[in-house]
Specification:
single chain, 472 residues, alpha+beta, seven-stranded antiparallel sheet, five-stranded antiparallel sheet, 20% strand, globular
Amino acid sequence: MGLTMSADSARLALSEIVGEKWVEVEPFASVNLLSDWTNRFHGRPLAIVKPADTAEVSAVLKWANDNNVPVVAQSGNTSLVGGGTPTADGKAVLLSLQRMNKVERIDAVNDTMVVDAGVILQKAQEAACAHGRLFPLSFASEGSACIGGCLATNAGGTAVLRYGNTRDLVLGIEVVLADGTVLNILRGLRKDNTGYDLKHLFMASEGTLGVITRAVVKLFPLPKVRFTALAGTPDVRSACELLKRVKEAAGPALTGFELMQAKCIERVGKEIDAVTVPGDVSGAPWWSLIELSYSREPEGHPLESVLEKAFEDGVAVDAFLAQSEKESKSFWAIRESIPSADAHVGGNLHNDVSLEISEIPDFVEETLTALQKRFAWVDPSVFGHLGDGNLHFNVGSVPAPLAFENEEGIRETVYERVAAHNGSISAEHGIGQLKRAHFLELKNPAEVAVMVKIKKALDPKGILNPGKLLPD
């Protein structure tokens, strides 16, 4: 862009908008904002600016657009793909939305909640619960991830099977465009057939089309009764068959159906002191975490009859049934602690892939075989949301550096099998910097071309989140 903006000039201009207290230039006090969650991507911005409201975001973007200054928006900074990390060239302004953290309104009749982009996901869940309602978006980093990032990446989580991805939970948004225009479509309507549904354009756009500042999200009645089980199966195909049977038996009560290798559970038990594994899981190589939720007590235990028949047919070979809410939470803690346990033994290359559920058994078998053939030392950690076809096909090694030294070959092997099964290389983490080259190589060129046209229409100067997702 041929930028000549100095840090002092940026500081003075931005201070007039948000106040001197909320602008940083080198040396930065908020160093935690300059690296991604994996500590892989590191940035050096021109300045860090922390607006208090939409009007200040609008003014910052107008200034940036007028002066050809790139802007990287960030909320919770929990990206696994470097999507919210500023570039390292010192040219971009890092726009932190963490001060915009209000739950503005809860409507228990319309079952909606208005939240700022900087609201931490767990805070949104707790606010809904205090009004007797459920905000069902949930995943391991919910204690630090913010609503803005969830929308910008269309985050998934553990309850997608019943409630959908983030975009399915959003009725309206407020977004600021590159030139500072505020697009307010902050409506809590479930039916609005007046032209294009623009809100979906900005979700999963990773901050490349506009900065989402507020959202109207859906709420649901709080479930009164939960049934949770860990079921061991001889293979992934049997886990898919068990999923089919539980769907048929439980219908919409099926809230979550997760898949884990037995070694993932064993590693959590060994590495994470705060998490308790219910027993010996070595009798089955694959385990499914199943949860049903109801608004009232059903007759009997709805999982028992399904599992009994599954045992008779050899579909399941072992099971643990949660006997209390405490045990149910303990089962979920196992699933959510797998990435931390992997990190304890040297880390993993993260792969977040999506496939049609019927394709998953062949994909897993083929990919494990291909990786073992090419890299005999690989230590895959396979787990994920089987109910919606999303696997975290992570790959580590002993010693740990080997996996990262062979990263491109490993990703090439995994993504080759994803493409062969007509899947996606990003189910919920986004593209960011990490997957950009692979995305541009594997994505249908016609789709990319349309995305580029939309980008140029809304951000003609290309100031929003450069170096992420799309080609510059």
